[in-house]
Design a protein that fits this description.
- Helices cover 12% and strands 17% of the residues.
- It has 349 residues and is an alpha+beta fold.
- It has one domain.
- Strands 5-8-9-10 form a four-stranded antiparallel β-sheet. A two-stranded antiparallel ribbon has the order 1-2. A two-stranded antiparallel sheet has the order 3-4.
- The chain starts with 72 loop residues before the first strand and ends with a helix.
Length: 349
């Protein structure tokens, strides 16, 4: 959440001259007016939130006020809504979404149920992150889709400014929409006269270098800027959650290293392991109704720092030989400082 500034209310009597009043002349001194801190993140935060104060951004799923029919027939059934189609595409259109299995055989299967979430409130939850897409409308992005979880910046565009916006007709992109006679430029940039705010966001499944093999960070940030006039300003919403799964998902505590085996030495590298961690983390949040169990909170005391020497990229960490203690597996260096690293990462994201 964006920074807020709190000012101490000034003493109402400070600097006042001392005046002697009679008993019948005394008047009640009004209490000082409280100063309400400015919520600088309100324009970047959705009206629906998992916790904290709701924002002002409207975050509906799908599209509203589309011209034409959104229920064309295909194979004797109504075409799913943009929300349903995008959800199914993210999960590779599996009929049974309960069967998705993370790459680590020690981890439980991911269970999301047969239907998409009906909303994705702002915060870190199993429903994912809200995105307003110019072609697919409002949708929930899950925590293990490779195109979402690497921190790529995505900025909102107009769906069809000055034209006719209709449901899509292309089989290759079910759930998409079509713009006729309008523009799909980025919102809030120079030349945009619609008055729209410039909104950009990014989400990340992160393993900070030096974190344990069990821990990772889900982080999300959205900015909303009003540009093009003398009162230009930006609103920022940022949130993150450090999760210790209790079993190793990352192949190493080192993201990259010249002498010791690291995540980049593993077949598939960082992205494959980000996907596996995102699957398992999202499943954990789903099973616990977005309340992280105490046992899964990151700590600076519970995971020993161990490394492997074999950097052969043709093998996996399971074949890379003996694990050795880093600095004796004791002290601040030999124990993973997961909680501290997560705080530093979120602060600088």
């Amino acid at each position: 959440m964006g920074e807020t500034t709190t000012r101490k209310p000034q003493d109402a009597n400070r600097g006042a001259a001392s005046v002697s009043l009679g008993e019948n002349d005394r008047v009640a001194t009004p209490p000082p007016t409280p100063v309400v801190p400015t919520d600088s993140g309100r324009f970047a935060r959705c009206t629906s939130v998992l916790e904290g104060v709701p924002g002002l951004k409207q975050c509906q799923l799908g599209f509203e006020n589309l011209a034409g029919s959104a229920t064309r027939r295909r194979r004797r059934r109504a075409t799913p809504s943009p929300t349903e189609d995008n959800y199914n595409n993210q999960y590779r259109r599996r009929r049974n979404l309960n069967s998705i299995q993370p790459d680590n055989p020690d981890s439980p299967a991911v269970s999301f149920g047969p239907s998409p979430p009906t909303s994705c409130p702002d915060g870190i939850g199993w429903q994912g992150v809200y995105e307003k897409h110019y072609q697919y409308g409002g949708r929930c992005l899950n925590w293990f889709k490779s195109s979402h979880i690497q921190g790529s910046l995505k900025c909102e565009r107009h769906a069809c400014l000055g034209g006719t916006h209709t449901s899509g007709r292309r089989r290759s992109t079910p759930g998409s929409t079509h713009c006729s006679g309008g523009t799909k430029g980025y919102k809030g940039i120079e030349g945009d006269t619609s008055g729209s705010r410039q909104t950009c966001q990014k989400m990340h499944v992160m393993h900070v270098d030096g974190m344990s093999r069990q821990a990772g960070l889900l982080v999300f940030k959205r900015s909303s800027c009003l540009t093009g006039n003398s009162n230009s300003s930006c609103s920022v919403f940022k949130t993150g959650l450090c999760i210790d799964l209790g079993y190793p998902v990352w192949s190493s505590g080192l993201n990259t290293h010249g002498s010791y085996r690291s995540i980049t030495d593993e077949p598939g590298g960082m992205l494959k392991q980000q996907t596996a961690f995102g699957k398992a983390a999202q499943s954990l949040l789903k099973a616990n109704n977005n309340i992280l169990p105490e046992a899964n909170r990151c700590s600076n005391t519970q995971n020993q720092f161990k490394t492997q020497r074999d950097k052969n990229s043709s093998t996996t960490w399971r074949e890379a030989g003996t694990w050795s203690c880093w600095h004796g597996c004791s002290g601040d260096v030999g124990i993973h400082q997961d909680e501290t690293l997560a705080k530093l990462a979120l602060m600088n994201y």
